[in-house]
Amino acid sequence: MRAIQDSILYAQQQATVVGALAVFSVLLWLLVRRFKALPICVLMVLIVHPVWTISAVTGDCGCFKANAATFVTAIAAVCVVLQCIVGILLTMRRYASEPVL
Asked: How many CB atoms lie within 10 A of CB 82?
């Protein structure tokens, strides 16, 4: 029973991380206004997160739920990192093309 509770708690913590990444991704999109697919991907990952879609009670005591939560969090993190890189590159390009007074 302890393993199941630990797996559920871990998956909930990972869902919280994905939620924070989703908020950050949407705010970043509001600043840059490019690559709308990345925040949408993070939000979709949050919607189908294993904390809500995979049961820990049956099967392997929640090990699959915990592993899937880690994988989903990694996908969201990669999307946000890509979004940050694109935002930085676009900002650098925008300021490089403006004339200096």
From this structure: 13
Q: What angle do CA 64, 65, 69 make, to 5 degrees?
A: 115
Q: What is the mean pLDDT of residues 43-68?
A: 90
| Helix runs in the chain, H state only | 2-32, 37-47, 50-53, 63-97
User: Encoding tokens for residue 61?
Assistant: 């005591």
Mean pLDDT of the chain: 90
* Farthest CA pair distance, the chain: 68
Amino acid identity at 94: R
CA distances 84 to 19, 28, 70, 99, Å, are 17, 8, 21, 25
pLDDT of residue 1: 83
Closest listed residue to residue 8, CA positions, set 40, 71, 50? 50
